[in-house]
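Review form for a predicted model. The reviewer records the input and the model, then writes brief findings.
Reviewer: anonymous (R2)
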Amino acid sequence: GFRTFYKNMFPGIPQKEASVHLKALWKKDPFKSKWTIIPA
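Model under review:
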């Protein structure tokens, strides 16, 4: 769910490039455990 939700913040950016930003967001996300219960 996390990547699907936040991917919309980077429209038109290739997945490889967006992945760098998504990884940084994931490292700082305080709700990691909650993303496992949210369906993609």
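Findings: The radius of gyration is 10 Å.
Further findings: The helical segments are 2-7, 15-28, 32-35.
Recommendation: see findings above.
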